[in-house]
Amino acid sequence: MSAPLRVVVWSTGTLGRFAIAGIDRHPDLELVGVWVSSPEKDGKDAGELAGLGRDLGVVATTDTAALLDLKPDCIVHCAMTDDRIFDAIDDLVGFLEAGVNVVSSGPVALLFPNPGMPEDVWQRIETAGASGGASLHVNGIDPGWANDLLPLQLASLSQRIDEIRVMEIADYSTYYQPVVMRDIFGFGRPIDEKLMLWEPGILSMAWGPVVRQMAAALGVTLDEPLVETVDRRPADHDVTTVSVDIATGTMGAVRFEVIGTVDGVPRIVVEHVTRTHPDQVPEWAQPTGGGSYRVIVTGEPIMELELAHHGEHGDHNDSGMIVTAQRLINAVPAVVDAEPGLVTALDLPLVTGRGLMARE
């Protein structure tokens, strides 16, 4: 029986604490290090930082070099990247150059090669991977598994495909990410305020990679550029969320699409319906439970698949973090075995929950 793969978790925020818990339960992985950004967490046990109620015997550190000196097989990178994309890419390239494989939740623009990132970024990743003999896989639930492998597996049942639409429909009121909620999405801010996410081309940078990955898997060439639609709506009453308070008249909900067309016809669509209270904009698509993913394949036959989830001890936003972390964690052995450089979902073998069946 082979020894467990040695893994470091990079950051212990909203996602990282679930990653620690997931690695602790995985029989093929061993947690050997944890990176933290704040002096307040430096020196604390990983079990305490993950809220496990017990020590794991692994002490967190702010010392990057010390963790790389451990020569782990893989880094599970859970750090916030939405507001520091190019700094995060520098970090990831540094890990590859040090010979450490990486699975990461971001930057999501790296899920699949696309023109949303400068060509030199892709070259840096490939060069670093080759020099260090290491691989990088960026994924999660959305962008990620819910709009790459899930729709492609459903499409494998098709005789003819006219359109694939993949939707996230969710209430974000219990989603704890203040930077994402207020500064990136703009919830609680003036409805017409100019924010980077809503500038032309930015949605395509974030969600375009999964649109392009589906197109590549289906063998179609998309028109350029991708098409974007955005519909921002004000809150019609005051709303309190765990991340931001939303006053009446400020932005409370948004619906957007990133559309891949072929000869002007929509063929592959990623759609988000994001509310901060379940009664907002009732005419928009409604989720199963507090949040769900929906795949609609129009063609022959017409198919619709709904994925609803919620945490055993929390709601759909809690489980959203768990499934994001676990998609990365369960992919670690395959990524370690992969060829150096960027590894997409299309490059990996079937990733399962091997070893995770409950034994109690």
Task: Describe the protein in words.
The chain has 360 residues and is of the alpha/beta class. It folds into 2 domains: 5-138 and 319-342, NAD(P)-binding Rossmann-like Domain (Rossmann fold, 3-Layer(aba) Sandwich), CATH 3.40.50; 145-308, no CATH class. Helix content is 28%, strand content 26%. The chain is built from 9 helices and 15 strands. It has helices at 16-25, 46-49, 64-69, 85-97, 119-132, 149-155, 178-185, 202-218, 316-337; strands spanning 5-10, 29-35, 60-61, 74-77, 101-104, 135-138, 160-171, 227-234, 239-240, 245-246, 251-262, 265-275, 291-300, 303-308, 341-342. The strands form 3 sheets. It has a 7-stranded parallel sheet, sandwiched between helices. The protein has a 6-stranded mixed sheet with strand order 8-11-12-7-13-14, with helices on one face. Helix 1 crosses helix 9 (316-337) and helix 4 runs parallel beside helix 5. The longest helix is centred in the C-terminal third of the chain and has 22 residues, at 316-337. It starts with a strand and ends in an 18-residue tail after the last strand. The mean pLDDT is 96.
